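Narrative of activities, Objective 1.

The group set out to show that a structural description can be obtained from nothing but a protein's sequence at a throughput compatible with the screening campaign. Below is one input-output pair from the validation batch, recorded exactly as produced.
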Amino acid sequence: MIANTSPQDAYGKLNIFAGGCCRSEGEDYVNLFACRAWCILVLIALAPLRGTAETARHPLDALTFQEYWTVLETMRASGKLDAESRFAGINLHEPPKTEVLRWKPGMTFRREALAIVKQGRRTFEVMVDVGGKKVISWKEIQGVQPALIVDEVEGAVERVKADPQWQAAMRKRGITDFDTVDCDGDSPGYFDTPEEKGRRLQRVHCTEGKGFANGGGHPIEGLIAVWDSEEQKIIRLIDAGPVPVPGGNADYDAATIPSREVPGPIQITQPVHGFRTEGNEVSWQNWHFHFRIDPKMGVVVTNVGYLDGGKERPILFEGSLAEIFVPYQDPAEGWYHTTFIDMGEANTWGGVASTLEPGADCPDNAEYFDSVIPTSHGTPQRRLRTACIFEREAGDFAWRHSPGGLMPDSRRQRDLVLRMITTFGNYDYAVDWTFEQNGTIKIGVGATGSVEVKAVRSRNAAEDRDRKDGRDGHYGHFVADNTVAVNHDHFFNFRLDLDVDGTDNSFVKEELKTERLPESNPRKSVWVAEQKVAKTESDAQLTMMMEHPALWRVINPNVKGALGYPVGFEIAPGHNAVSLMVDDDWPQKRAGFIRHNLWVTPYREDERYPAGDYPTQSHGGDGLPAWTKANRPIENTDIVVWYTLGFHHVPRPEDWPIMPTAWHEFELRPFDFFARNPAVDLPREH
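Output recorded for this entry:
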C-alpha cells in the first residue's frame, strides 16, 4: 500500500481511510478495536516516511511528532494526569530571545513545551523540559476558562439531541428525524448574567442538513440550548418560537451549480524554484527567514533578515497573527452572544492551519509543509499541507520610467509568498506573508467561506417592508429567500516583534500637518511632517484618521542610514476599520485590543495574546489593555508592535452561497533603511 506511493499521498490515503473507519453513522459506531488497530497501522506506516526528518533544527521550530509523544509520556510519568485530564493546547515554549539571537547552526538549544491541562473544573499550566524528559512546573491557574475542547462540544451535542424538551421543540418545528439535524456548540462570550457565574458554558445551535451539503444555509432559528459543560446538562432552552427553515439550495458544489466554460488554461511551470529551504529556513534573493506552523497561531515568521551589501541586516524577530475577533450585530436572544474571539476560545478544530488543496489554494509551483497538532488527549496528529510557499509573477512591474514617453526602462516584479489558511466555523481566512524584491513585507488576509445567516419569516426585503413589524432585515441583509446574513465585523491582530538593525528600537509617529503660509507667498498652505518619538505606551496607542494623517514607523536611533537618518521600517496601513461598539459593551471590553489600530509595548516573553491568555468567558480588560496600564517606557528598547486590521461586513447576495475572497492588507515598508531603491538592480529578464 505504501511502497509505490509518495509520502504525502500515503498520509492522505491513511488519514482518509482511518477517518472513515472511525466515523459515526447516526447512533452506531464502528468497533473501537478496529479504530485503534487503524491508528496503530497509521503510526507504523508513517514512521519510516518521516523518521529522521523530524528532529528540530532551529530553536524556534515547532514541536515535532516525537516531541509531542515525549511531552505526553513525561506528564504521564509524573503521576498527575488522571482519566479526566484533557489538553486545551500543547505548544512550543520558546527559548529566551537572548538565547535565540546568540544561537548559530550546530549549537545546542533548549526544547520546552507549555501544556494547558483541564482536570474537571481546574486548569493547570504545565512546563515540560522535552530534552530532559522532566516536568519543570505544574501550576494551577485559578479563575480562568481554557479554550473549548472537542470532547466537550461533541458530548454536548449528543446530550442536547437526546433531551426530551429539545426534541419537543424540534417537533413543534415539524422536524422529527433528528439524524438529519447537525448541531454545534460555541463559547457564549460573557455578559455578566447570573447564569454565567461560575459556569463553563456553550450555546448549542442546529441546522437542518437533510438533502443538502451546506447545512449552514438551513438554520433552525430561535432554538438554542445553553449547556453547562461541567454539570453536563442543559440549564436553559431558548425557544423564541418556530421560524420556517429556508428551503432554498445553498450548496455550491459543481453538481449543484454547473461550472462555466473557461477556455484556455493558464499554466504555471517553474522547473527550478528561485528559493531554497533547509528545514523551515528559507532563502530567496536577498531575503532570509525562518518559520514554523504553530497549532494556536498558525504560521509564525521568525528571524527575518535582508542581505544588504554582503551583510544580513535583521528586521523582524517574530511576527504572527495573534487573534481574530468577529462580533455579530444582532441583539436577539439567540444572537447577541455571537461575538467570537476565534483563536483564544476555540480549540475544537485541533489546530489553526487547515489542509491546503494543491493547484487551488496554492499554485502548481508551490512547495508544501506539513505540521503536527495535539489532540485533546495529548497525542500528536499529522496535518498535511498546512502551509505553502511559492514565487509569484502577476504581470506587474517592480519599477519603470519612460522619459518623454519613449524608450521605456522597466523591470518585472516577482514576489515570494508564504501562505496558510485557517478555518473557524463558517469562515476561511488566508494569511499571506509576501516578501517583495524592494524590501517590503506585505501581510494580507483573504476572507472567504459561507456567511452566517438566520432564518426569517419574510421572503425578501420587499415583503419585510410590507409587514407591520417588519424588522427581519434590520440587523442584516437578505441574501436568499427567508435568509438574512447578519451584519458583523472582522478584526485581525498581528504581533510584530520588529528588531530593525538590532533590538533597541523606538516608535515614531510622523504627523502630516497643515502649515499656513504668509500673505506674501502666492500659496496659502502646504503640509509638513512633524516627528514625535513615543516615550511611553500611551503615546503609541493610535487610531487611523483620514483627517489627521500620520506615518507610523519603528526606528533604530542608534544606527544611522546613508543620509544620516535613523534606519527604520514603516507600518503602512491599507483598508482598515475601527469598532463602532460603545466602550461599556461586553464584547468591546473582552476584545479590548480593537480600541486602537496600533499599540506598542516593551518586549515581554509572556505577553503574546492581545485578548489575554484565557479569553474564553473572560470578563474584559485582559491582554493589551491590562499590560499597557502601567504606561511603560518604550523608547530605545526592545519593543513589540501590535497592529489590528479590520473591516465591517454588510453581507450582500453576491456573498452567497459562498463568499468571493476579500483581501485586506498592510505593509512593513523600509524607510531610511536602504541607501536607494533596493530593487534597482533587478535584471531585465528573470
